[in-house]
Design goal:
Helix content is about 80%, strand content about 0%. The chain has about 90 residues and is mainly alpha-helical.
Length: about 90
């Protein structure tokens, strides 16, 4: 099997996940009383990120390979980028 670095896996997974989330937000926007599927997927991304970060910290602690630390930084950077994009979208 191909050995792909964990940073690339992190970027790929969360990029695809957020693209699917935004597609579902357009398809099923929901209403004032019930969130749509996009909102549910977006809210699910938070615990997924926390669990993934804990797993990366554990792998970093066990193996002390820098790729896991880079994955943690990448994940934090993706969340900052998403926050900035949402703020810019809100300003429109």
């Amino acid at each position: 099997m191909i050995n792909i670095r964990s940073e690339y896996k992190t970027i790929f997974f969360f990029t695809v996940y957020f693209i699917i989330t935004f597609i579902y937000a357009e398809i099923d926007p929901g209403g004032p009383c019930a969130p749509g599927m996009g909102a549910v997927l977006f809210l699910l991304a938070i615990p997924i990120s926390i669990i993934y970060t804990i797993a990366l910290f554990y792998k970093l602690y066990k193996s002390e390979e820098k790729q896991y630390l880079y994955s943690i930084f990448t994940l934090a950077g993706l969340w900052v980028l998403l926050f900035i994009l949402l703020k810019l979208n809100e300003a429109k």
